[in-house]
Amino acid sequence: MxxxxxxxxxxxxxxxxxxxxxxxxxxLMCTPGTLAQLRTGRQATLPTSMVVREDSLTLYGFADDDxxxxxxxxxxxxxxxxxxxxxxxxxxxxxxxxxxxxxxDVKTLTRVPGIGQKGAQRIILELKDRIGAPSGSAAxxxxxxxxxxxxxVHQGLVGLGYNARDAEKAVDAVADEAxxxxxxxxxxxxxxxxxxxxx
Length: 199
Hints:
Elements: E1 4-12, E2 16-21, E3 24-29, H1 32-35, E4 43-53, E5 56-61, H2 65-74, H3 82-91, H4 94-102, H5 106-109, H6 117-127, H7 137-159, H8 164-174, H9 185-198
Parallel strand pairs: 3-5
Antiparallel strand pairs: 1-2, 1-4, 2-3, 4-5
Helix pairs in contact: 2-3, 7-8, 7-9, 8-9
């Protein structure tokens, strides 16, 4: 299996990045948060997880090893496939996910598209004993999340090829949707892209 990929970022799309490794462009499916950290033409190292199906080989890329571990662990719960596991990490940080599962927080898990109340309860039941304790950065990341979402969304838009001024306007346009202590960066990035496509 491919444990990680290192190379120049050839392209960044809404849901994936292409990393050139030895003259071959590998497409990695990534969360918006991970994509926001990548810059076309710059070198990147991404831990990866390969999902093998009868008709496809899909490579998922992550910001760090913790995200990769949570992605693989989430799939051990019944009814959770790679796309849902990735959606969980797009909405919640690995520590946010651990905290939600450890504290039986069904409401937080149902913020993930595709997870209903029964699904959240099943995930909590099946993963609670295996998920591990939060590393303690969850509380800190909440406060930085509130302050840093603008920068992450801005970087994501610039990484997708928009100029800095347009990106700034789009960030301002979606600022009202940020609300709360830990705004959903992925949703805000998608909202900003919608704003730009209308313009």
